[in-house]
Batch of 2 targets.
Target 1
Amino acid sequence: MHESDLELTRQVAQGNKKASEEMVGRLFELVRSACRYSAGNSNDWEDMAQIAMMEILKSAGSYKGESPLEKWAGTITMRTIWRKIRKKQRYISILQVVFRSHDEDPVSQSLEVDVDGQTLRSRMSVLLGKISPEQRMALVMKFGFGYSVREISETLLTSENTIKDRLKRGKEKLKRLALNDKVLKEFVEKIEK
Amino acid sequence: MKNTNNKICLKVEEILLKKYNDQKLNPDEIELLQNHLKDCKSCQWEEKLFDILRYKSESDSPNYTLSGEEKRKVFEKIWERLNKNIAESNLKKSRKFALIAAAAVILISLSTLALIWLMKQKNYESKRTFNIISCVGEVLTGNENLCEKNQIGENSNISVNKGFLSFSENNGYTIYVLEDSSISIGSIKDKRRSIVVEKGYIVFRVAKGKERIPLIVETKLVRVMDTSTLFSVEVLPAQIIVRVSEGEVIVIETNGQKRNFSSGERFSIIQSGKVVDYMPPEEIRRDTNIANGKIEKQIAKTTETASIVEKTEEQAESKFVEHGEDLVAGKKQPSPSQLLKLARDFKANEKWDEALKTYEKIVRTYPSSEESKVALVSIGEIFLERKSDPENAEKYFSKYMKLHPSGNLLEEAWYGMIRSYRKSGKTGIEASEIRKFIKRFPSSIYTKGLEKRLHEIEEENDEKR
């Protein structure tokens, strides 16, 4: 049992502003990362992060202390993002895909890359934006936040086999994209040397 | 780049897939994986590529990491949005609740209205039979003699060839059909009971203030609508005469024009279907007096039909001799209607003791029958009027009132009771009962007489003081 986390969420559920601030301080970066990776190239990932954080604060009363607070918050974040993506997909995703397919990514075109961790992660989020939201969500949850196939399937309300399939195809696609990306290619070459 | 020709690389890829799919690896697979990843650069980069995504701490963020101050600002924004969001959701909830409550109220109201409407419809539906109050002579519906029955059904054609008939519908009104008259009881149209008068003289007494089906009397020339009243319609070959004794009626002429006529107005209608002639009110009082007395007998006897009624009574006596003896002797088990008929025959022949016995037999043998109600009032009447025994009369009238406080004959029983008090000299209770009666039946045919009597009692009391 994660007693201290349980106490914190209890206070948040009671509307304690200080506890809420503490919770936001602790979880917000994780939520932002999840949103940045999962939102694709959408510009509203910061807004999405705030909405996910609000959901976490509102759901504080449902935390039972059985898993670490970060994992519980990650699940809520992913669920919120998934809902948002699904909603958005219905209206604009087709248009975005059509227009983006001819866009050249400005970073891969012009940057003289200093291959540090931050840059690589940033590039990764750009590449993730080029694969389907379904595969992207599965990859982010699996490789970014270490969820099991079962947990992913429960969060995204999809069968385990579908998730496995999405992981396999998403992984292949991401590898192909990475090999065509200047920054990540440089990273690959460094390793091979 | 991955060396796809390398069999070990392909094997490792399989093992990695197993790992990603949360399948358990055996010790050999783990060893192979570890050893291969140490040396094979192409497999190594794949693992490292996905390791970029792995979030372990804030430093693994793909974004610019927020400072403490920035986090605090973001929190304030989130807090504000959260509170606003909660307030909006509460408002939505209360609106939703209000909407549901309003819908529920509307639904309940509509259901109640529908239920009331249905009940009213059912009420109208159920009122399809008419109780015969008195029937003397040759009164036919089809080939059947109505005087052998207690009830008349809806849509009956009735011909009173000799004698007279009176019947009522659920105590709402009483219809008196005099000799040589024909009527049809129609069904309910537009929530009104239609009575078609073919010929003859018909008197309508409509109870005021009671829930009843309104009447519309149809003749070949005009239609007469009641509005709580006592009136008669006489259909003659050349004209129709409508007499209004109390209250008001609406006459609809053939041209659709409506005319209201109040108490004391008599008019005739010629064949063109227009009101052409009024009688002065003085002449009407005769008719009113007729109505204020014992309506059945007096109407009959003040018309030319009186002699025929007498003849009918004679015939009734001989009829009684034929079938009455068997019933009294107990050879047959008489039905309540047979007993009532028999008692009426005794009454018509002024055999008061026999009539009393027969009425009492009805009360004793069939206490819950409709005939028993009539019998109680009739016994009271005989004790009061024929036997000069107001104490016994009071007993029977009071029994009826107790057993049937909203019965068809309540008015008659109450009136009988008041007269019994008068005969017994119980002036105090008589006055108080008169007051109650007038309050309950303000438009009763007995009311005027009782008001006069009350005035007398009060004057007597004043003199005594």
Target 2
Amino acid sequence: MTGVDALQAQLAHLLGRRLVTLDVSRLKRIDTAGMQLLAAFVRERAMHDRSVQWRGESAALSMAAQLLGLSAVLGSSKQPPGAAARDGHTP
Amino acid sequence: MTVDLTQFHGAFFEESFEAIDSMEAALLKLDAGAPDQELINTIFRVAHSIKGGSATFGFGEIASFTHSLETLLDELRSGSMQVTLATSDLLLKSVDVMRAMLRCVQAQQPIDAQRVSDLQFDLELMIARKTAVAAAASPGAAAGASRAQAPATAEPRASRWRIAFRPYPQLFARGIDPLRMLRELSALGALQVRAELADVPRFADLDPRSCYLGWSLELNGSVTHGDIAQVFEWAEGDCALQIELLDTPMQEPPVAVATQPVASSAEPAAAGAKPTADAPQLGAHDSGSIRVNVEKIDELMNTVGELVITQSMLSQLGASIDGPGAAKLRAGLAQLERNMRELQESVMRVRMLPINVVFSRFPRMVRDLAQRLGKQIELRLTGEQTELDKTVLEKIGDPLVHLLRNSIDHGIELPDARLAAGKSPTGVVHMDACHRGGNIAVEVRDDGGGLNRDRILAKARERGLVGPHDVLTDEQIYELVFMPGFSTADQPTDVSGRGVGMDVVRRNVMELGGQIELRSEPGKGSKCVITLPLTLAIVEGQSVAVGTETYIIPLISMVESMQLRSTSVSRVAGRGEVFLFRGYYLPIVRLHELFGVQPRTRDLDEGLVVVAEGESHQRIGLFVDDLLSQQQVVIKSLEANYGYVEGVSGATILGDGSVALILDIPEIIRALSVRAAA
């Protein structure tokens, strides 16, 4: 829950970009609220036929995606399910 | 019907703080590698009961945190996880966080969410690592864990459950994270998860603090309905939940269906599935004791005090009555007096608590300090069961903390220095409490370097507290430590050494009517003894007569009484009369002058002098008409009932109904030296 507002603002900026790569290598923890936001973001992009690229790996993210059944949604871009992600740092 | 739960908050906090203390104590005893199962059970029970309580009272954050803690503890309890130093540290940190959260909630202040969630994450990470390892190692491990959670019920059979979990939007705001629940479920068996995103709005319309996700789950494992319901226990009222049995194995009760919200139907099931170990232990904890508000006891105490006065009035009256029934009356009054004394003692005992209440926080403190200072320290506590009055107990904590810190910081040397001095690298700090007469003595002793006599003296000279050529005895030098603002530490550490120390310690002890004494031997260590009265409500006193008035001198301040010959009294200009007592000249204070009353005699030869002692062994001679009796008197606050009077610490009502003032000897000595200096 900490930082979801900031994350939403950051992601909102990226929503319209043609290419979005999220670097998740430094992502150490994420909760359901964050996952929900990411899922909504990826889905929104997909609605406009735009994908999200993931860079790096995050065990926390993979585990959360798997447990919450969101691997498919998040991994709809190039990466296989499980290696999905968050972090607003990278445009 | 709704029940106002706030009325139980006080009891909940009180019990929780106590429980956390016992949890901390158990954690400190927990050995890495070979943990005592009973200790783990104790720790688990504490987390469990705090979780339950905080959930009941709607303290979602605490409930959620303790839930994670409990999960980890359960792993330790079932032996599927080992106790390591890392786990101990994490658990101790959890204790701190729980305590801090409870304090915040109690004070109705916001909780430090970042600190809580960081630690909660660490807890979950530790659990997750274990789960991942176990799942990889053997598929049966998960089932094993679930069995450990429900040993009370019959061995559950492998079954397939369908769970529909639809959180309400406010779920996140309650501090509940579905991720945690799903992780727990996955530990119970093979879990298939399907997220429902239908209700998730478009990105722009999404409120990140609301939960829109829902889940359809299928769980395969040897679990009962209760096991599953327990996982969702904390989302109770904040979600719609349906738990449905898909495959009905033989002999399993047919279909158990819980409808939402989870609360009502699932809770009893969950409770039934909980480890039975809870029941007898909780019973044992409650064995025959009740919680009573201290105010009520004080009231009782006060009433008993009044009764004692009435009784002694009657006794005096009875003694002067003659007649046919007089003997019988006196026998009855004697019986009454005995009963009164017993009653008074019983009520006093109610207020008594073992000093362990204070001692118990020291092991943790010593552990942390030793770690920080890089020292090896063993803390020995003895006499923890020694009882003393609650008020005294509350006020003795801080001085003891200070003494202990001093011992650790200044007393005990670093391991290398100790080895070089031919000592064991581990320093020992010994804290002991025992009864001595009507007092209690608490001793803090260490085997460190002892007080540095020369350094203290040099410092005192530097500050002009001692003249450059004065020769002081060891005792006088140690006395300097108690001067305000005195510290010999070259670099004040954050542990101690800011010079706001020993003088405050002494003042606190004095306020309690106690005394403090410091001894030290270079290279061998130092010892500090605090002597305290058992209670503040009653004082053992010597009553003295001055004219028609009676005054009480606390026995703890009394040294001796004697008859002086006026020839042995000298007059010193500006200082009044002095007399020689054991090699020292003591000033004479005439009580009749001090309080402006008409004495029976002003002649030193006819009256008596009582030698009384205040702070720092300062003594005076009090001139009185006569000594009366030694008795226990019930202290009544003069300030509360009348007003402050210099030199008087309180008052009491005597058997004849008259009021006697209780002298405050240290105060009288202070006033005297101020006057002498002026």
